[in-house]
Amino acid sequence: MAESNGWVPAGIDVSVPSPARVYDYFLGGAHNFAVDRALAEQIAAMTPNIGETMRSNRVFLRRAVRYLAAQGVRQFLDIGSGIPTAGNVHEIALDAAPGARVVYVDIDPVAVEHSRAILDGVPGTGVILADMRDVDRVLAEAEKLGLDLTQPVAVLLAGVLHFVPDSDDPRGLVAALGAAVPPGSFLLISHATADGQPPEVVQAQRLSGRTGSEIVLRTAAEITSYFAGFDLVEPGLVVIPRWRPDPQDPVDEHPERVGAYAGVGRKG
Ligand code: SAM
């Protein structure tokens, strides 16, 4: 793939891998650089099922958005949204609930630039270049883009919290987001874990930290604690493929090998 075919925003350092682009490569996307592919290959060589975990996460996100739309949610705040690939949150949400509003947030300018291009002219959608650790700014910008924080919102934190180190208080950040949305809102989290994983998988997941953002593997108990103030809906926090599997989705032959948990909670 050409490295200068017009989609690269100015000022991007192509010598440092980015989580969004490594993830894009694993999903079969085209928005990644040699440095991202090299790191992805290194990770994949150590543990072949890491790509499966990432694809499983993406499929989970799609079925969870369908679930949330079916619960009547009409506003989605997708934080750490990444590079849009087929079956984006807004496509699923708008398909299931015409008139839905979807705001994407990502720290990566490449991801944001692509989201802007894809969302150009799509009513009800918007994108913010921001660090989720600045919750006040994320919320203020989301409101400017039309999110009504007096009405239920689904806050989506898919595959992003493990990039937030403990020193940045991920629990506090999630609590601040949860406090900003009214009862009837939902919180979605998917998060990498070392629980039940062999050492080489753990090592490979830690390698993702070489993208410049530390990756932190957390336990089920830690991740569950982020849902304080929300009631986990069935089946609770489970390895990703076990969250309300849909017969239409690709089958994960070995759900236990997926090194990440997923859960959705409702604010009562
Ligand atoms: N949410 C998408 C999904 O689940 O398919 C993409 C997940 S991707 C693994 C993680 C994304 O989180 C990347 O696009 C990365 O740029 C973004 N990210 C990492 N740290 C972030 C932060 N502090 N604030 C906002 N986004 C962040």
How would you explain this protein's 3D organization?
- The protein is of the alpha/beta class and 268 residues long.
- It has a single domain, classed as Rossmann fold (3-Layer(aba) Sandwich), CATH 3.40.50.150.
- 36% of the residues lie in helices and 15% in strands.
- The chain is built from 9 helices and 8 strands.
- It has helices spanning 19-26, 34-46, 50-70, 89-96, 109-119, 135-144, 170-180, 199-207, 220-225; strands spanning 75-79, 101-106, 125-129, 154-158, 186-192, 230-232, 238-239, 260-267.
- Strands 1, 2, 3, 4, 5, 6, 7 and 8 form an 8-stranded mixed β-sheet that branches.
- Strand 2 (101-106), helix 5 (109-119) and strand 3 (125-129) form a beta-alpha-beta unit.
- Helix 1 (19-26) crosses helix 2 (34-46), helix 2 (34-46) packs antiparallel against helix 8 and helix 3 (50-70) packs parallel to helix 4 (89-96).
- The chain is globular and about 45 Å long.
- The N and C termini lie far apart (48 Å).
- 48% of the residues are buried.
- The structure holds S-adenosylmethionine.
- S-adenosylmethionine binds next to helix 1, helix 3 and strand 2.
- S-adenosylmethionine binds at residues 19-20, 23, 57-58, 61, 80-82, 105-108, 111, 131-133, 158-160, 163-164, 213.
Low-pLDDT parts are none
CATH superfamily: Vaccinia Virus protein VP39
Tally of distinct domains:
1
Count of extended strands? 8
Output the number of helix runs.
9
Query: How would you characterize the largest beta sheet?
Result: 8 strands, mixed
Helix content: 25-40%
Instruction: Sketch the topology as an H/E string, one letter per element.
Output: HHHEHEHEHEHEHHEEE
Average pLDDT: 88
- Name the ligand types: S-adenosylmethionine
Q: Span from first to last CA?
A: 48 Å
Radius of gyration of CA atoms, rounded to a whole number:
17 Å
Q: In CATH, what is the class?
A: Alpha Beta
